[in-house]
């Protein structure tokens, strides 16, 4: 895997994020994007769907792979991506090549 992909410990699976530093009794890494912006709003995935353009998946058992600040699509190659992707013409984010409506901006692609 590309060296730009960080390995971040202690994420929640299901909703995947690193936003519970004070609320969990295991050691959790800090999301580098939240850290840069001084917020705790960015999440890797919600309801088992990847929503962050830096999210590169999970390494077993529960380590988040994160390519921030490089778009995951620029870092991952070949079989590290599970399906063909295309760029949304409205918002520019990468989406499933089969998608008709963009999941990010809700526009037709
Ligand atoms: S994938 Fe996104 S939300 Fe998750 S740790 Fe990286 S930048 Fe933060
Ligand atoms: Zn879009």
What is the succession of H and E elements?
EHEEEEHEE
* Strand residues, percent: 15-25%
Number of strands: 7
Main pleated-sheet profile: 3 strands, antiparallel
Secondary-structure map:
Blueprint: E1 6-8, H1 32-37, E2 45-46, E3 49-50, E4 55-59, E5 63-66, H2 72-75, E6 85-87, E7 94-96
Antiparallel strand pairs: 1-5, 2-3, 4-5, 6-7
The structure holds iron/sulfur cluster and zinc ion.
Please describe what this structure looks like.
With 109 residues, the chain is mostly beta strands. It folds into 2 domains: 6-76, no CATH class; 79-109, no CATH class. Helices cover 9% and strands 20% of the residues. The protein has helices at residues 32-37, 72-75, and strands at 6-8, 45-46, 49-50, 55-59, 63-66, 85-87, 94-96. The strands form 3 sheets. Strands 1-5-4 form a 3-stranded antiparallel β-sheet, with no helix packed on it. Strands 2-3 form a two-stranded antiparallel sheet. A two-stranded antiparallel sheet has the order 6-7. The longest helix is centred in the N-terminal third of the chain and has 6 residues, at 32-37. The model has no long low-confidence stretch (mean pLDDT 89). Iron/sulfur cluster is lined by residues 8, 18, 31-33, 42-44, 52, 54-55, 64, 66, 68.
């Amino acid at each position: 895997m590309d060296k730009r992909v960080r390995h971040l410990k202690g994420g929640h699976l299901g909703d995947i994020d690193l936003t519970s530093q004070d609320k969990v009794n295991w050691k959790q890494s800090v999301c580098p994007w939240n850290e840069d912006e001084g917020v705790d709003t960015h999440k890797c995935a919600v309801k088992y769907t990847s929503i962050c353009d830096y999210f590169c998946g999970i390494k077993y058992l529960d380590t988040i792979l994160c390519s921030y600040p490089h778009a995951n699509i620029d870092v991952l190659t070949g079989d590290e991506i599970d399906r063909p992707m295309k760029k949304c013409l409205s918002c520019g984010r990468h989406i499933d090549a089969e998608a008709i409506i963009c999941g990010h901006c809700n526009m037709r692609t």
